[in-house]
């Protein structure tokens, strides 16, 4: 449902949909996945037209290319989103299957039963694909989703909201199970963040400032994906050609993604060789070098010295930082100080170095001798994801279908009672 209703109307509709929603595993959710894919295909031209309006307005406002890249849709996105819907449909039986069963005192059985989390509020910025993801994954396992995207994608969200509403109706699900907010007034966000009486979980996706704002402005439990300030430590034992391959894949395959590397931490013995190898291998990126290395690396117009504010920064473009470190201990200390606990990696043939990295670094994913971009639900074999959580409670890493569920314990006995002498 696309809505400009009052806050009370929005939450009343969400609560009603939560109460009327079928339980997880109902066949209507699989039907919804198919209906959404079909209707996205049917109405894609209208979605693209609306998105072109948003992109044009963003250009008129002089918004940076990194933002334009995130908010723009193309024909290829349709295939990605319909494939997401189909994969979700296929995985639903596994995600909602009966859980473990235990036998307790007196022959009772205690069985886990999948339950929806409830009403989820997603606040995100300029990625219209998130609107589809937010209306698909949570709803497919029985949740109600309230979706508030950035002002930059308002027209696109109106078009996508109409598709989502039509898909819910076709599948026989309550219309209020997915609400796309058309109202771009920030006052509405503040009002929603105060409503922990109705909203069960808050999922912010976007910049660190957005996530911090949500965490500090609401009592609603947060499933947060912190900013992608990710590092790759290249040890002196590393295979240099492999390190170059991993670094370039980690940066250039999708420079604005949350699992993209921003800073290379290179052992001081191989830092110059690594920098020159990177510059010689690819021409379509810029390198910010540790000032101590600038005079030692062959001059290139693509090189600039690192500045202090580049530590802990997401460049969100084809820029890669490189700092020299004395060894693994200094690399770990730098990551602890500047990382966002999202994805951290190490390239090393010395197993002791890799094991120390795995032990001493805290992040949602730690990658050894591989691209940072491997931290992704489908790539890891976990299925579609809504975001990557950097928190420790409830879920860490890819937020897939099972992470959008909780459970009840179904306890069954044949007249069993606890009694005064029961176990404690």
From TrEMBL:
Residues 113-285 form the Aldehyde dehydrogenase domain. Its main location: cytoplasm. This is Gamma-glutamyl phosphate reductase. Its EC number is 1.2.1.41. Catalyzes the NADPH-dependent reduction of L-glutamate 5-phosphate into L-glutamate 5-semialdehyde and phosphate. The product spontaneously undergoes cyclization to form 1-pyrroline-5-carboxylate. The gene is proA. Pathway: Amino-acid biosynthesis; L-proline biosynthesis; L-glutamate 5-semialdehyde from L-glutamate: step 2/2. The lineage of its organism: Bacteria, Bacillati, Actinomycetota, Actinomycetes, Pseudonocardiales. GO terms for biological process: L-proline biosynthetic process. The keyword tRNA processing does not apply. It comes from Solihabitans fulvus. GO terms for molecular function: glutamate-5-semialdehyde dehydrogenase activity; NADP binding.
């Amino acid at each position: 449902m696309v809505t400009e209703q009052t806050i009370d109307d929005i939450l009343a509709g969400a609560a009603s949909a939560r109460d009327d929603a079928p339980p997880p595993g109902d066949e209507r959710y699989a039907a919804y996945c198919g209906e959404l894919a079909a209707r996205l295909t049917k109405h894609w031209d209208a979605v693209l037209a609306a998105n072109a309006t948003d992109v044009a307005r963003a250009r008129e406002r002089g918004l940076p290319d990194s933002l334009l890249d995130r908010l723009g849709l193309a024909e290829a996105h349709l295939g990605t989103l319909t494939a997401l819907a189909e994969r979700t449909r296929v995985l639903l039986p596994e995600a909602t299957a009966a859980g473990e069963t235990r036998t307790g005192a007196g022959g009772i059985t205690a069985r886990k039963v999948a339950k929806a989390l409830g009403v989820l509020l997603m606040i995100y910025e300029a990625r219209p694909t998130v609107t589809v993801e937010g209306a698909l994954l949570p709803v497919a396992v029985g949740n109600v989703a309230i979706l508030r995207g950035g002002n930059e994608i308002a027209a696109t969200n109106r078009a996508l909201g109409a598709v989502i509403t039509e898909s819910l109706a076709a599948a026989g699900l309550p219309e209020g199970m997915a609400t796309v907010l058309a109202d771009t007034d920030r006052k509405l966000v503040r009002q929603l963040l105060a409503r922990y009486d109705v909203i069960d979980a808050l999922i912010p996706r976007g910049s660190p400032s957005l996530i911090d704002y949500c965490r500090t402005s609401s009592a609603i439990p947060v499933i947060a994906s912190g900013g992608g300030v990710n590092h790759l430590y290249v040890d002196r034992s590393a295979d240099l050609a492999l390190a170059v391959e991993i670094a370039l894949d980690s940066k250039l395959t999708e420079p604005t993604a949350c699992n993209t590397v921003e800073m290379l931490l290179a052992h001081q013995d191989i830092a110059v060789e690594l920098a020159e190898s990177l510059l010689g291998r690819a021409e379509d990126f810029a390198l910010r070098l540790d000032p101590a290395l600038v005079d030692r690396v062959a001059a290139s117009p693509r090189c600039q010295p690192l500045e202090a504010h580049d530590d802990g920064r997401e460049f969100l473009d084809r820029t890669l930082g490189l700092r020299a470190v004395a060894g693994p201990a200094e690399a770990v200390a730098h990551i602890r100080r500047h990382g966002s606990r999202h994805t951290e990696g190490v390239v090393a043939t010395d197993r002791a170095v890799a094991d120390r990295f795995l032990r001493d670094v805290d992040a949602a994913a730690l990658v050894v001798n591989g691209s940072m971009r491997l931290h992704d639900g489908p790539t890891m074999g976990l299925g579609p994801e809504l975001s990557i959580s950097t928190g420790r409670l409830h879920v860490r890493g890819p937020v897939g279908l099972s992470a959008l569920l909780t459970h009840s314990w179904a306890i069954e006995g044949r007249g069993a009672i606890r009694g005064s002498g029961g176990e404690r």
